[in-house]
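Protocol step 4 of 6: structure prediction from sequence.
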Amino acid sequence: MNATVSTTIFAVFMVGTVGLGLLAVRRRTGGGIAEWSVGGRSLGAVFIWVLMAGESYTSFSYLGAAGWGYNYGAPVLYVVAYMSCGYAVGYVVGPMLWSYARRHDLVGITDILAHRFERPWIGALTAVLATVFLLPYIQLQITGMGVVVSTISYGAISLNWGYFIAFAVTTGFVVVSGLRGSAWVSVLKDVLVIGTLGFLAVYVPLHYFDGYGPLLDRLVAQKAEWLTLPGHGGDGAGGSGLGTAWFVTTSLLNALTVVIFPTTVAGYLGARNADALRRNAIWLPAYNVLLFIPMLLGMAALFVVPGLTGAGSNLALFRLVVDSLPAWAVGFIGVAAALSSIVPMAVFMLVIGTMWGRSVLSLVPRWRARQKGAAQVVVVVAGAGALVLTYAAPNTLVRLSLISYEGMAQLLPMVLLGLVWRRLTPAGGLSGLAVGVGTVCALVFTGHDPVWGVNAGIVALAANLVVALVVTFATKADADQRPDADVLARDSLDSRDSLDSRESLASLDARDSVDSVDPLDSSHGIGVTPASSDGAPRSAASAD
C-alpha cells in the first residue's frame, strides 16, 4: 500500500513535469538554436532565479550533502563556501560574458573561445573536452534519481527502471523545450525543494531528538570530531585529508570555476539583461541556507541509523524519511529529490548538445544550416550513452567525475585571462590547458588528491597558468587584425553595457508584446547568478 501511494504521487508529477516543459514553448516555434539553447536571451529575472538557483540543488543536495555530513561532517561546508564566493566573482564575470556573447551573437562557452581566438577548431576542441567533464554529471544524476525512485517506492521500482525513468523524463521535454522548458520545470522543483527541506528541518529534530537543543548537545558530546576540520577521519594516514588547506583551496578553485562552467554560462546567456545577473549575484547566497539542512540531518542520522558505509551513507537522509513518515509525504519528498536530478541533468544535456551542434557538427557543411537539429540529436545520444554506461559500466563515468570539476577549471586562463588580455596567444592558452588537464589526470588517478594537503586542481591550474604565460611570451603575438572591441570583453560595469541592456530589453519587450509573455517573466526584481553542479573533489549552460 505504501509503495502504491508514493509511486502514484511520483508518477503524476513526472507526467506533469514533461507537460510543463512542453507547455513552456507552446507558442514559440522556430527561433533556431538561440531560442532553444539560451531561451532566446529573453528569460526575465524570476525565471533566471529559479533556473540557476535550482541548478545548485542536484541529487547531491539530498544524497551527497547528507552523505558527506554523515561520513565527514564539517568539510561538506565547502559547498556553501565556494558557491557564495562564486557569486561574488559572478557579479563581474556574468555580465561580462553576457555582453560579449550578445555583441557577437554567441550561444555558449565554445562559441566564445572560438570567436576570441578566431579559430573554430578551438571551439570544437573545447566542446569535446567539456563533454568528457560533463557526461559524468549526467550519469551521476541518473544514478541519484534511480536511488531516489527505488527508495521512495519501498523497493517496488528497481534501480534499473529508476535509471530509465530519469533518462526518459528529462529527454522528453528538453529536446523540444530547451532552456525555457528547464526554467519552467525549475519553478515546480524549487517550490517542492523549499517546502520539503523546510519541513524536514523542523520535523526530524523534533521527531527523533525532541528539538534542536538535544540534537546539538549530542553532536557536541558524542560526535565533536564531525564539527571541526578536517572532520571525521582526521588528517593523518588513512584519514580524510580534508583539512584547512584542502578546504581553502577547494573553495577558491570551485568559486573561480563555477563562473565559467558551461552550464553556468548557458544561464548567463539566457538572461534578458546584464543588470539581472548583478542582482542575482547579490541575492543568490540566501538560497544556500537550504544546503545546511541536508548537511545537518546527515549528521543527525549518525544517531538514528548508525553503521551506514560506502554508497549506503548517501541514503542517510532518506532512511530518516522512509522510516518515519507516511507514504504520501515520502512521495512528495521523493518528487522534490527527483526533480533535483532532472533539472540539472536537462541543462547538462542541453549544453552538450549546443556545444556539438554549434561548434563541432557545424564544421561539416551539410550540418551548418541545421545546428538546432544536430544539437537535439546530440542531446539524445549523450543521454542514452550515459544511461547505457550506467547499466554496463557504472564505475567508468564515476571515475571520470573525479576530475570533472578540477579538469574544467583548466579552461580558466583561456576564458577569463584571454577575454581581458589580448596578448595571450592560442599556443600559450592551449599549451597551458594541455599541461593542466594532464596534471589533474596524473594526480587524481594515482591517488594524489589532495596533494600536499591541497586540492590537486589548483596545483594543476598553477602549472597551467605558468606554462600559458611562458609560451605566450616566447612566441610571436597573434596577427589578429581585429580591434580590441571585437576581441576583448569590456568591463561589465561599463555604462555602455547598461545602455545595451536597456536597448536589448526594449527590443525584446516589443517582441513579447506580439508573442507570448511568460507568466513569471519580469525585467525587475530578484534574479540569481547560476550555480554549478555540485563538483565534489575526489576525496569523499544565435540564431542559425
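Step 5 (inspection) to follow. Confidence is low (pLDDT under 50) at residues 495-544.
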